[in-house]
Structures are given as structure tokens and as C-alpha cells.
Structure to design on (56 residues):
């Protein structure tokens, strides 16, 4: 396999995994959350996603 193609597929897989994780974390975090608490929950989820991506 071409190294350039392998690198592109690796990056694509990483982005897809992080996006799926962010979606699942958001769904789980917002399930059963009162509307007044959603902003705090979404801010926390954003921090978790930033940590997953390596930007703390």
C-alpha cells in the first residue's frame, strides 16, 4: 500500500473515531439532563472532546 494513502486513511480514521466519540458522549450526557443544566454539560463535553483531540 502506498504510504501516502496509508497516512491519509489513518488520519481519516482518527477524525471519524473522535467525531463518533463526541456524538456518543453528547447523547449520553444530555439524556435526562434538565434544560437549565444543558449549557454546563455541553461545555464539559467540549472540554472532553478537546482533550481527546490533544488540545487541552
Amino acid at each position: 500500500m502506498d504510504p501516502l494513502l496509508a497516512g491519509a486513511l489513518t488520519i481519516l480514521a482518527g477524525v471519524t473515531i473522535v467525531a463518533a466519540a463526541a456524538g456518543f458522549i453528547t447523547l449520553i450526557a444530555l439524556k435526562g439532563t434538565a434544560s437549565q443544566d444543558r449549557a454546563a454539560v455541553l461545555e464539559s463535553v467540549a472540554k472532553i472532546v478537546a482533550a481527546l483531540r490533544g488540545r487541552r
Q: What stands out?
A: The chain has one domain: 3-53. DSSP finds two helices and no strands in the chain. Residues 29 and 44 are 9 Å apart (CA to CA). Residues 3-53 form one domain.
